[in-house]
Design a protein that fits this description.
It contains 18 helices and 20 strands. By secondary structure, it is α+β, with helices and mostly antiparallel strands. The strands form five sheets. A seven-stranded mixed sheet has the order 8-9-10-1-11-20-12. A five-stranded mixed sheet has the order 17-16-18-13-19.
Length: about 550
């Protein structure tokens, strides 16, 4: 039941485009207003917030929404039954706050009952019913749509309408994250809008009239290639009158919208060079917040792999890990606020703990460990064990300048202790194909966390060999601790078991966990009180009255 969000292809820093240079005062504001009038959006004052988005989604309908911007938009139109409070453990049943459901209770070890918000209505005026909830869980479990959470829901969760305002969720097994699975993955859809349309046709349907939700905003306009506009329904926590997403082809173009004062917010400014461009405009500010991503160098431990005699040796891997200054690498690559994680996790994962045991950065200890492992200095400064050199290759995707930068830094760090490392750069589809077939010595990967740690099972347990554990790390001790942690209902006990599991993983060094970056949003002074939830960065616009001057 694990869900993985795939590799995070970190964009490289591109040269600023024409017209990105400094402009000042009245001229820039006048140019911005003229451009807004030309594209039909009008002025951005008076309760309208404009978001500069990189890329345009194919769909904002929740089961089809795969891009971050699609989920951002959809979360203003559609609702979950309940929301998990940011940073709270997914097994803590007190960590959820009402959304479409006003209350809920556990019926037994396999069943939860939810009571819908009184008088909840769809944006077309129809009442929201328990039958809509039943329909939505069926939709998210359907292979015809293949929503990201289908593997978690299909065959494991069933919704039953008890009456028009009460729905019962029945689980196939008892486990601590039932309430999380009941609320996090599914946004509720209107059955009366979608039931008659074959699900195979949903992705091709572009009618705005079908984008009907129960949330605080409704879709009123979508000019493909330009922008999408939402208007408040009134009440329901909405504060801004309108939300407009401007679609830019790349991060540079999105940042240019901010620098021209034609947008109020941009989710991710990107590499330090782009952040510097933003901070040179004193009318803008950066809001730093933890990213859900973590990155690592993974070793191929599979028998028969080309570098198995080298990387299959635990003592050698531990020495390699001690030769790397992970914290300095993270800051140098991703800027201030970035950190070296204590395991396979971002700072958003609730199991993060500074008490997790990690191998220290100590080049002298690394060299002694290599000596003890039989790797003796040889010709050209490369260590050898018998006739075999201490050498291997790092595979990186060509699409990521940051991963190439990390690979180069690792190459230099290991050269200093007598290791010869080469770097192979390939197109991203080739990168994925080679990982799947085990055709690599080491690789630099990146993953996005969901609030639950269960995705780590696919990435690092023996069961994940057929999924995302490309390096074929296998440890009975780690798997056992991880399984016990996942089955524990008490937060303190589960936290301790997860820490013990991470201690075991780090001691085996199947990977070197290199970074979790700090994201930086760019915002205008109009959003002076915006607080960011990293899993839904614009949710503050839904919940707070924050527009200056309102």
């Amino acid at each position: 039941m694990a869900i993985a969000f795939g590799f995070l292809a970190t964009s490289g820093c591109r040269e600023p485009g024409a017209g990105a240079g400094p402009a000042t005062g009245a001229r820039r504001v006048a140019d911005a207003r003229a451009a807004e009038e030309a594209d039909g959006l009008g002025a951005i004052r008076g309760g309208t917030v404009v978001i500069a988005a990189t890329g345009e989604p194919a769909s904002v309908l929740p089961p089809l929404a795969v891009e971050t911007v699609a989920r951002d938009i959809g979360d203003f139109v559609y609702e979950r039954l309940a929301d998990l409070e940011p940073g709270r453990p997914t097994i803590d049943t007190t960590a959820f706050r009402p959304r479409l459901a006003s209350s809920w209770e556990r019926v037994d070890s396999l069943t939860w009952r939810f009571h819908l918000r009184p008088a909840a209505r769809w944006s077309d005026g129809h009442p929201v019913t328990a039958e809509d909830v039943r329909f939505s869980f069926d939709v998210f479990s359907d292979s015809a749509l293949d929503a990201p959470a289908r593997a978690i829901l299909s065959g494991h969760v069933r919704a039953v309408a008890e009456d028009s305002a009460t729905v019962r969720l029945e689980f196939s097994e008892a486990y601590p994250e039932q309430l999380y699975d009941a609320t996090y993955h599914v946004r509720i859809l209107p059955r009366h809008v979608w039931a008659a349309l074959p699900r195979e046709e949903w992705a091709r349907d572009t009618a705005l009239a079908r984008l009907v939700g129960s949330g605080p905003y409704r879709v009123v306009e979508w000019r493909r290639g330009q922008y999408l506009r939402l208007v408040t329904r009134g009440g329901l926590g909405a504060t801004a009158r309108e939300l407009v997403w401007r679609f830019a082809p790349d991060p540079d173009a999105a940042l240019n919208l901010m620098l021209a004062h034609r947008a109020d917010a941009m989710e991710l400014v990107g590499p330090p060079a782009m952040a510097d461009r933003a901070t040179r405009d004193t009318a803008l500010r950066l809001l730093r917040y933890p990213s859900a991503a973590y990155g690592f160098l993974g070793f191929n431990l599979a028998r028969g792999a080309r570098a198995a005699p080298v990387l299959g040796d635990r003592a050698t891997r531990r020495a390699l890990a001690m030769a790397v200054d992970r914290a300095a690498l993270a800051r140098a690559t991703f800027g201030p606020g970035s950190a070296a994680p204590p395991g396979p996790m971002s700072r958003l994962l609730w199991i993060w703990s500074d008490s997790i045991a990690v191998l220290p950065f100590d080049t002298a200890a690394a060299e002694r460990a290599l000596d003890r492992a039989g790797w003796r200095p040889g010709p050209g400064g490369v260590r050898r064990r018998g006739n075999a050199p201490l050498a291997f290759d790092i595979l990186v995707p060509a699409t990521s300048s940051s991963r190439r930068q990390l690979a180069t830094a690792l190459q230099e760090a290991w050269r200093r202790v007598g290791v010869r490392v080469t770097i192979t750069t390939v197109d991203f589809p080739v990168f994925q194909e080679r990982l799947g077939r085990g055709r690599f010595d080491a690789y630099i990967g990146a993953w996005l966390d969901e609030p639950s740690p269960r995705g780590l099972a696919d990435q690092w347990t023996r069961a994940g060999w057929s999924a995302l554990n490309y390096g074929h790390y296998g440890s009975a001790a780690f798997d056992s601790l991880f399984a016990m942690a996942r089955g524990e209902r008490e937060v303190p006990v589960a936290g301790r078991l997860y820490r013990e599991a991470m201690d075991t993983l780090n001691a085996d060094a199947p990977a070197i966990f290199l970074y979790t970056p700090a994201s930086a949003a760019v915002v205008s002074p109009r959003l002076e009180r915006l607080r960011i939830d990293p899993y839904n960065w614009l949710s503050g616009l839904r919940d707070e009255a924050l527009l200056a001057g309102r």
